[in-house]
Amino acid sequence: MNQTLSQTTIDKDTSGLNTSRLVINRQQLLILYRIYNFRFINTLQIQQLIDKKQIQQAQQRLNLLVSRGWIGKNFTKLDRLTGKYASYYLLPKGIKVLKQYKSKLGFEFKLNPRIVHNIYKDKTASDRFINHCIGLGDIELNLSRLYGDRLKYYSKNKLNNDYFPDPRPDAYLIINVEVNDTIKPTDHFLEYYQEITPFFVYRKRIKQYVDEYLDEEVWQQATGHECPTIHLVAETPVLQRRLHRFIKKYLNDLYLGTKARFLLTNLVELKASTSPSIWIQVIQES
Question: What is the Cα gyration radius of the chain?
């Protein structure tokens, strides 16, 4: 993603400490904004975001933000030995910088007080939560790679309307598809499911989507649009197959004509794919 960077000179940083002509550019703000959206990012994702050939170039930019106290870094000796990428999260100074210079991003942006409150706890976040956030970042980058301009991706912290399911999906997608020589926007919810989570949690969530949301036509009544398709990205192919078996049996036990529509893939295949034709629909048998 090549960006024309505009630079802003800050005579006084947002914590109130005097600085010597500190300079912030649009690329740095984009990195802060991405961390705000996904809570945690890793070095490889930033390399892809700023379109650099060498990962060291991404590390240099992230290390600068760390040195300024805008972001924190997770990287242990074990991570180094296993080749795991460092992960990064926002610090209070970074939130203040993002808030003060958000206009440089070129679009309307408002900090969500609830999200900001949660971000203050990210320094002590669990590995499970961090890995979930990193996984969602990988999903967004790869979907953007496959769909290009046809995709609009909205992370969970942007889903404030009451007609979204509660709890919120991991993301809301608008995908433009061609229908009879015209472009039609279609609505989709996305969830990322990890191996570490007990499977009964997913069973409950899937049933909630069908029984309490989709078949009650909450979305249709609020928006006038068709029922969103549920996209489930499993962490592994094994989990994807298990989800497929459960959803198929569950749908077959329901009445015919349920509005629930599930499409599945896994993160391994998503990263390797060169085509958006990666989704497998769960078919209700007649």
Answer: 21
What distance in Å separates the CA atoms of residue 210 and residue 216, rounded to the nearest whole number?
8
139 vs 188: CA distance, rounded Å: 14
Q: Round to whole Å and give the CA distance between 233 and 171.
A: 11
Can you say whether the dihedral through the CA atoms of 264, 270, 272, 278 is positive or negative? Answer: positive
pTM of the full structure: 0.89
CATH 1.10.10.10 fits 7-125, yes or no: yes
Q: What share of the chain is helix, strand, coil (3-state, %, to 5)?
A: 45, 20, 30
Q: Where are the domains of the chain?
A: 7-125, 135-281
pLDDT tens digits, the chain, 286 residues: what are they?
A: 444 334 444 444 444 444 445 678 889 999 999 999 999 999 999 999 999 989 999 999 999 999 999 999 999 999 899 999 999 999 999 999 988 887 777 666 778 888 888 898 999 999 999 999 999 999 999 999 999 999 999 999 889 889 999 999 999 999 999 888 788 999 999 999 999 999 999 999 999 999 888 888 889 999 998 889 999 999 999 999 999 999 999 999 887 667 889 999 999 999 999 999 999 999 888 6
Least Cα distance to 70 among 47, 95, 46 occurs for 95
Question: Among candidates 267, 281, 272, which has minimal Cα distance to 195?
Answer: 267
Q: For residues 82 and 135, what is the distance between their CA atoms, to the nearest angstrom?
A: 18
Residues contacting 49, CB < 8 A, separation 6+: 1, 30, 31, 34, 141
